[in-house]
Design brief:
The structure holds two protein chains of two kinds. By secondary structure, chain A is of the alpha/beta class. Chain A contains four helices and nine strands; from the N terminus they run E-H-E-E-E-H-E-H-E-E-E-E-H. In chain A, strands 8-7-6-5-2-3-1-9 form an eight-stranded mixed sheet. Chain B starts with a strand and ends in a 5-residue tail after the last strand. Classes of the chains: A alpha/beta, B alpha+beta. The interface between A and B is large, with 45 and 27 residues.
């Protein structure tokens, strides 16, 4: 189970629309709980794959180091990542799988069709390492409490 | 010095987010780390002892692969090492 706020869910989908037809990417800061990964903050990242940004993404490790450092100060961990698939389904690709190394983290993919965010799915990378890793479908629970409180 | 462990590798450090180890160089510190937590070694290094291609190690803000002395770079007690696996992917069309 991946839990994130309605605002966070909207933010990562909006990011994919903004960068269309290129892929967006970012980091999910939060906490791993018994119920799954709980997202507290969505952090946008730059896509360094400017050579093929329509179908590839890469987050510079130095940016990741800074995001992880920021999370540490806030008592948050990296619990996942997100990216978009412009004009392609919200399913992990062989490239996504080959490049996935954060076991226990959630990989969120949003399909962006003709500039509009469509389906958003999450996949949990399970296993102990490269030899036995696998993606499993992961439900997304969107927390609406904040919005109700403001109404 | 402190070595920051990424979430997927904490299963091999007893859940510790940060591990303090002695070491005069980056390589020494990594040796101390994998000596204390042997299961980590296969996740960081290949059989020939080189870092796995997707594992990045930063000495403060510098990728050790691009430092002139690489793993032999001297490190001080106040330095921080961060282990950070790479993040990449993308849809399958070319």
């Amino acid at each position: 189970m991946l839990k994130l706020s309605f605002a966070g869910y909207g933010a990562l989908r909006a990011h994919g629309e903004e960068t269309y037809p290129h892929e967006c990417c970012g980091v999910l800061l939060g906490n791993a709980t018994l119920d799954g990964n709980l997202v507290r903050e969505i952090v946008r990242a730059g896509n360094t794959r400017t050579d093929s940004a329509h179908n590839r993404y890469n987050i510079a490790p130095e940016e990741l180091v800074k995001i992880q450092r920021r999370g540490r100060k806030l008592g948050l961990d990296i619990v996942g990542f997100y990216h978009s698939h412009p004009d392609h389904p919200a399913q992990w690709s062989p490239t996504d799988f080959a490049e996935a190394h954060w076991v226990g983290c959630s990989y969120v993919i949003t399909a962006v069709a003709e500039g509009k965010a469509a389906v958003t799915n999450s996949f949990l990378l399970t296993g102990t390492g490269e030899e036995d890793k696998q993606f499993i479908d992961e439900p997304i629970e969107i927390e609406m409490q904040e919005e109700r409180g403001q109404a | 010095m402190n070595i920051h462990i990424p979430t997927p590798l904490r299963a091999f450090t007893g859940g510790q987010q940060t591990v303090s180890v002695p070491g005069a160089t980056v390589g020494d510190a990594l040796e101390q780390l994998t000596g204390a937590y042997p299961e980590l070694r296969q996740h960081l290094f290949m059989a020939d002892g080189k870092l796995r291609s997707f594992v990045n190690v930063y000495l403060n803000d510098d990728d050790i692969r691009y430092l002139p002395q690489k793993e032999a770079t001297p490190a001080e007690e106040s330095d921080e090492l961060t282990i950070i696996p790479s993040i990449a992917g993308g849809c399958c069309c070319l």
